Amino acid sequence: MANHSPLRFKNRIFYALVAAGGLVVLMGLYAAHMMEGHGHIITGMNNQIVWGMPHVFAIFLIVSASGVLNVSSIGSVFNKPAYKARAPLAGLLSIAMLAGGLSVLMLDLGRPDRIIVAMTRFNPTSVFAWNIFLYSGMFAAVALYLWTMMEKRMNPWSKPAGLLVFVWRFVLTTGTGVIFSFLVARQAYGTALLPPMFIVMSFAWGMAVFHVAQSSIYEWNEKLLDPYVQKRMKNLMGVLVIAAFYFVAAYHLTNLYFARQTGFERFILLDGGIYPLIFWIGYFLLGNLLPLLLIYHPALGKSRSILSASLLIILGGFSFLYVFIIGGQAFPLSIFPGYQVTSSFGDGAIGLYQPSLPEIMLGMGGVGIAFLITTIGVRVLDFVPHELPKSA
Amino acid sequence: MSDTNEMSNTSEQRRQFLKTSVGAAAVAIAPGMLMFDMAHGKTEAVSGKVRWGMLINTANCEDCDKCVKACNKENGLSGGLSPTDSQWIRKVELKDMRTERSLALPMMCQHCAEPPCVDVCPTGASFKRADGIVLVDKHICIGCRYCMMACPYKARSFVHEPLHDQKPDVPRGKGVVESCTMCVQRIDKGLQPACAEACPNKSILFGNLNDPGSEISIKMRTEASTQVRADLGLDTGLRYQGI
Ligand code: SF4
Ligand code: SF4
């Protein structure tokens, strides 16, 4: 049956992929089980760096889950056929990444067994609680949207449903940014610039993830992507990367402008050891410059280099979040401005953090969940973009 | 042509998808809907006429850690100093960067009147009693650590390992967050917090901030004292002298 359509994965590759994805998910679950038994002592997290590797993975997945919907929004809200054909795949990727990211967040809790408590008790002042609501609503909205696209009778509704998703994902990414904006006492966070920055970054990362998924699907099905579509999408991705970089630059520049933040900026950009290294090499060089070169250099810009560019943008996203989340906590809180402080609890000292295997496995498990859902969805439910006979 | 076959196949699959996804969506959104119904009111037996606080005089605070030891003993903490060990109270050494003046003080939960930890807690596990003491309900905390991110004073610890030999009146638990409770178990018995009692120089004065006649209120009225990071406007229940 699979042979009917060249667009479907070959059976063998499909099962191999499912097995590989399943293995990664199992490893993640095993890591979570270990963390539950031994406590977070087996992770690199501690009382100074309270959020670590799992949060880097989870936030990347959740933010990208919102960004990938860009593709559907351009299709349904702005009526671009090339994007419309891709909207279902984007929706699937979004649900998959949301599921992966949320699983990681949940399994990293100190008491994952109390997830029911988290879902039934709602503190209205907590941004975190709003986010739980936003995430579950997102699932519903995207599923509804997919339904309106896939079920013929519902087709007329796909535009309003697309609009709902469009609005919802803005709110969701804003909410993710606000989680950090609310931490007023921490130098790294507590700025109103974070929500828009997260929104623009989500576009770039989501686009990159979409490209990787789309290229892989086309590759395995020995299909060629319409060069016109390819060009459009790659240019959009380039613009989004530049826009995201602009926000990151603005974030650091405004920090530099406020005198009390210069210490933090020095740390993150200059003398903070591993963090400036990851920022400049991982985020700036590999995650921005190189992909832009691959996208815009006239001799490059073919499908292979766009795939590499997308992978690099994803790497850049992880680098950014590592520096933002972990570097942001490593820099000591300023509890007594004007004083030099020391204590047994790390006051005035750079927080130490060494990611451990279990927490990396847990994070990878989330990626595995996203991968598994996507692979199965594409294969079983025919999410492959169907190009209209001829667009123009 | 196989194309038509393909088409009907596809729509069959899509119908199937629809059924599954609607079910999944219902499961996913239910908790979100439920949350709206949950008002969370707490009825405290303690009175709002009281606001417990402490006034710490750094002039008398010397190079000792009797308050820390007393806290550990009272609350059953190990006293370990690794980055994953709980420290409800710690001694902080300060040096003024301009004048080089040195001083030391005990630092713990400041029992804010506007506690950021309570604002951000998704479940309401972090809460403020009517008498101003900020606590974590060990049975509701899910261990997300958002409160630790939000606390400007780094007052909270996360229990990273299974615990043994706990004290019956001080519930603690692996995977949840904890911090100074002002020794509620003692206050509710009419005693002072362990640290205040242990300080040989009486540097920690405990009392009711809402009672104008209490020793602490009189002292705060007549002598200068300050809140740590007063700029954040959290109205802390702990005040310091000499910083
Ligand atoms: S000092 Fe920290 S833990 Fe204590 S009430 Fe204030 S914010 Fe909460
Ligand atoms: S760790 Fe516990 S007390 Fe702190 S915010 Fe999360 S649920 Fe609330």
UniProtKB/TrEMBL annotation, chain A:
The name this protein goes by in its record: Sulfite reductase, dissimilatory-type, subunit DsrP
Mode of membrane association: Multi-pass membrane protein
Keyword Membrane: yes
Listed transmembrane segments: 12-32, 52-77, 89-107, 127-149, 161-185, 197-214, 235-254, 274-294, 306-327, 360-381
Family membership: Belongs to the NrfD family.
Organism, scientific name: Candidatus Gallionella acididurans
Subcellular location: Cell membrane
Top-rank taxon: Bacteria
Main location as per UniProt: membrane
Pfam family, one: NrfD
UniProt GO cellular component terms: plasma membrane
Keywords in alphabetical order: Cell membrane, Membrane, Transmembrane, Transmembrane helix
TrEMBL record, chain B:
Family annotation (Pfam families): Fer4_11
Protein's UniProt keywords contain Repeat: no
Keyword terms: 4Fe-4S, Iron, Iron-sulfur, Metal-binding
InterPro entries reported in the protein's UniProt record: 4Fe4S_Fe-S-bd (IPR017896), 4Fe4S_Fe_S_CS (IPR017900), DsrO-like (IPR054822), ET_IronSulfur_Cluster-Binding (IPR050954), TAT_signal (IPR006311)
GO molecular function list: 4 iron, 4 sulfur cluster binding; metal ion binding
Every 4Fe-4S ferredoxin-type domain range: 132-161
Protein name: Sulfite reductase, dissimilatory-type, subunit DsrO
Organism, as annotated: Candidatus Gallionella acididurans
